[in-house]
Amino acid sequence: MAELNKLAKELSKLTVLEAAELTKMLEEEWGVSAAAPVAVAAAAGVAAIEEAEEKTEFDVILKDVGPKKIDVIKAVRQITQLGLKDAKDLAETVGAKILEQASKEAAQDAKSKLETAGATVELA
Are 113 and 85 contained in the same domain? Predict the structure, then answer.
C-alpha cells in the first residue's frame, strides 16, 4: 500500500501533457484504450496543480451568527472598523463577506475572533 501511495504522489506531480503522454504509452504497452479515463485524469491533474499553488488571499465569509449576536457584531466592528449599524447589518446577512482578499494571517485572525464570538465562519 505504501508503494501505491508513493506512486500516486509521483503521478500527481505530472503536468497534463505528461499525463497524456503516459496514457498513450500505457495504451500501446497494454493494448487498451483509456479514452474516458483520460478526461478524468486530465481534470484530476489540473485540480492537483491548482491545489499545489498555495492560496495567498482569502475571503472571510460569515455562515451563521450563532446565539451571541451582540458579540459577533462587536467582533465584526473590531475586524472591519465599521460603525454599529453597518456592522449589525453585515452580521445579520448570511453569507456576508467580512473581509475580502485578506492575507492568510489576517483571515485566520478574523476567523478566530468571529468563532470565539460564537459565529460560524468559512474561509474561501
Answer: yes
